[in-house]
Amino acid sequence: MKEQTIQFEIPAVSSVEAINYKRKQAIFKCFKALPFWILISGFIITIFGMTFSVLLNAFSSEWYGTILPKSYTAHWFLKAWKEYDIWSYYKVTIEITFVSTLLSLCLSIPTAYVLARKNIPLKGALISFFQFPIMLPEIVYAIPLASIFYEIGLAETIPGLIIVELLIGIPFSLVILIPFIETLDSRIEVAAQSLGANKFKLFTKIVIPQLMPGITSAAINVFIRMFSTFLTILLIAGTSTQTLPVMVFSVLQSAGSQPAPEIDSLTISLMFPLLLFTFASLWFSSYTKRKSRK
């Protein structure tokens, strides 16, 4: 019995038709992505436009009815720093933030190691519990905390503000450190233990050096988060323990009686360290990714 083969005739497609088809597909993809790029461009232009406008106004000596200021000066910065004593608020803010960041790292590094490496009871529930201060709106825990702190006498004190910052900094640090520890090679720790290293040496000589990129990333991000903490500090801080964000907010409430360039110079004084640490965080993140690929 002879096998019957069926042959189909494939119509020939000219190269011109193929090029036109690809061109139409490319144009369709461009139109499809157009709303996305319009939205992203509008967002970036709005954010950078407002920031650039505030920066120019803070350094302008006269800016009425022109696209750019007619001349520039640092007078408003000098006036704002002298009139509002900004340096004293910087010192209080940096003191609270630095101590809180250091304590957060000291407490969160061993906690993150246990949660990442050990199978303890209620491990998932504990990790979820530590994420609450990050997920919940700040107002949910700020008012009860303020009430408790005023009752026990910790409100309007530097130790009270540091404790409040720790409640925010420790969970934030844990969220960053746990994934870092999970990526470390546990066989190195097993080898060190087999060679006689005790738990202290294992942690300080093996785990900590490998974890330095994660610790640095956590330190920068926790510092930024604590430096900009506003609502909880506003409710608890007194006149001598106000941080820079709270002071700037107080001045902005009376913005109608102050020159606009002076208010903008205050805003820039608050934004500068936050932008500096944000760029440092982005650079360090990019640096560690490049190093891990090598």
Automatic annotation (TrEMBL):
It is found in: Cell inner membrane; Cell membrane. The keyword Cell inner membrane applies. The keyword Iron does not apply. It is a multi-pass membrane protein. It comes from the Bacteria. The chain crosses the membrane at residues 33-56, 96-116, 128-150, 162-181, 230-252, 264-284. Belongs to the binding-protein-dependent transport system permease family. This is ABC transporter permease subunit.
